[in-house]
Sequence to fold (509 residues):
Amino acid sequence: MTDSVPAPLRAGALYINVFIVATCGLVYELLAGTLGSYLLGDSVTQFSLVIGLYLSAMGVGAWLSRHLEKSLAKRFLEIELAVAVVGGLSAPVLFMAFGSTGNFQFILLAFVFAIGVLVGLEIPLLMRLLEGQLAFKDVVSRVLTFDYVGALAAALMFPLVFVPKLGLVRTSLLMGVLNAAIALWGTWLLSERLGKSKLGVRVRAGIVIAGMLVALAFADRFTTRAEHSMYPDPIVYTETSHYQRLLVTQSRAGFNLFLNGNLQFASHDEYRYHEALVHPAMMAAESPKRVLILGGGDGLALREVLAHPTVEHVTLVDLDPAMTRLGKNFPPLAELSRHSLDDRRVTVVNADAMMWIQDNTELWDVMIIDFPDPNTYGLAKLYTTLFYSRANARLAPGGAIGIQATSPLLARQSYWCVVETMRASGLSVHGYQVPVPSFGVWGFAVAKKTAFEPPRKAPNVALRFLNDGAMSAMFDMPADMTPVPVEINRLDDPVIVRYYEKDWKRWQR
Fold:
């Protein structure tokens, strides 16, 4: 194979190199941001810190490039290999570090900074390698164009392809393989400038590619082992969907469902949560025949709704098909929900609740809203005046809404922000709380179009927790859970995310 590549072809190939460098670099930082928010929580801060540090580190790398004077082609390819090794191993090392060290965030940010510096070194060096082949203005415009297009490709492919199809660890390793392969390809593109050093670079590139491919082959085993170190109980089910990581652990007391590392329920005490979520709204409604459940793809809130003999039809809207499949097909969960998702009265829709409730014009006697906590801006839209106004518009006269609203004890501002935002949307709202051992004291709200007295009697259905005394006591808020001043959560000002991060940060270790 000849090492001679025509100059125009070489320049074009190097532009493609820029595209791949930019794509891989941003993928590494998106991986770091995702891992940071997944393992540490506080997603807004983690992503902001990671992206900001990455961009700053690229500036440091660009400044350092001025000190490289000799063997530019060799230095460029060596930096490309360094990106492959550091970036490719970033996700596996971070997974391993989380369970074995207390300095996880320092290690996370060190990887981000190192990758940023290396990528920042590459772009100026590539411009200098192209110097003389084109006018300087053309070199700058084309290199930066391919750089930005590569970043766009990474931003699109990361959530749509890489994470749902490959998972975090395999995505990281695959990007490492790609970086090393580009470095190997570069030994032919830059052969004339490499001289005798090209053989050494090729050998090192081959070693990196082989190592990454071996790691890819064992990635699933590694991920399983790393996740086992994060959870006290054995893992019995995992799946990465387009939207989240689903994981189920098994203990002597039962099983636990985690979404993106956050506990959704524990089977031994979930009945307290779901009875409290559903039955006050069912009792407050005048004629609970048609019920809408938003969220709750596990089928457990649906189980409580179907216990009422007046119910004729239920529509359950959950964004993630993987969640509703789990609710139907994972035997322990299907049994726990009494196979509610298979009930002939139930229609399951996999859609974004915000858009679905806008487009659907039906009226509902009861709405049960069981969304994840508002810990990201994407989720915060489901707690805005806009969303609650849409829900109010779809509520039949005499109908009622039941909603989970995080903890009024542990996240007091967040809780009352939910309640006051519902009131600002024209609803009459009563807040209440229930102790759930797996979560602590948890908060809910029941709402109607007009003023009403909260229900004080339990329904005449099979229950494990609620009775008349418990139903009445839920609505008596202790002094440390009473209202506090809060702003209203709006689509253009999602204050609830800031409240949530501030509230829960106090309880983090």
Summary: The longest helix spans residues 7-40. The CA atoms of residues 428 and 451 lie 5 Å apart. The chain has three domains: 7-227, 231-264, 269-505.
